[in-house]
Amino acid sequence: MTALLEVRGISVSFDGFRAINNLSFEIGECELRAIIGPNGAGKTTFMDIVTGKTRPNEGQVLWGEGSKSLLRMNESQIAQAGIGRKFQRPTVFEDQTVAENLTMALSAPRGPFSVLRWRPSADSAARVAELAAEVGLAEHLSRKSGELSHGQKQWLEIGMLLAQDPRLLLVDEPAAGMTLAEREQTTTLLRRLSEKHAVVVVEHDMDFVRRLDCKVTVLHEGSVLAEGSLDHVTANPEVIEVYLGR
Ligand code: ADP
């Protein structure tokens, strides 16, 4: 598999504490990957590095065919390069309809200020309908987002990220707070998205990770402790120790 994202020997220290410690791994084009690990393992810091929010003290973060260094780009340039991040709490505009939220997301493709250059068009209405359908909200286009369920808000936010046409989506704990039915739909959605985009899911919920049925990377103390199928990593005595020893 061709690497879309390659993290090579990165380390980050906060006041002398190594939150990320010589971390290396790759994410392939159109790969679905789960990153798990106990609290403090470095999962958030990893996403902060990839999106340019935190700079590593050492190492390389390489992107795309030309292995461009993401460390030379700011947050906005990284978003423009095709990396979208979904935080745990949905941040949709509750007073606006689903269509309006998606239209706004389309109006700001890849980075701030592009909204100033954007004009709505018939194409954008069609794209909004397409995006809503992609995330299972085709029936809810004219509903105010504040009326949606928690799960539907999460899907809307994923749709807003898709409006920016990312090649890699980083998704933080998508299943948190969802009903069982919503979690099942989210699994299906993420699996389907990974047919066209690379999707990295940071997740605590092992049931959910099992349903994703993808390669799993276990982080511990800022490094990769184990990698492989969920069954493979959860049979690893070091992984068992880390989880039981919490
Ligand atoms: P996770 O997301 O896996 O729970 P984090 O990436 O949030 O882990 O944190 C990794 C470690 O780095 C933790 O011990 C955390 O306390 C520490 N850390 C993260 N960000 C900062 C910061 N800005 N300043 C100091 N310590 C931090």
From TrEMBL:
Coiled coil: none
Listed name of the protein: Urea ABC transporter ATP-binding protein UrtD
Pfam families attached to this UniProt entry: ABC_tran, BCA_ABC_TP_C
PANTHER family per record: CONSERVED COMPONENT OF ABC TRANSPORTER FOR NATURAL AMINO ACIDS-RELATED, HIGH-AFFINITY BRANCHED-CHAIN AMINO ACID TRANSPORT ATP-BINDING PROTEIN
Gene Ontology cellular component list: plasma membrane
Domain ABC transporter: 5-246
SUPFAM superfamilies to which the protein is assigned, alphabetical: P-loop containing nucleoside triphosphate hydrolases
GO terms for MF: ATP binding; ATP hydrolysis activity
Presence of keyword DNA-binding: no
Entry keyword set: ATP-binding, Nucleotide-binding, Transport
Keyword Glycoprotein tagged: no
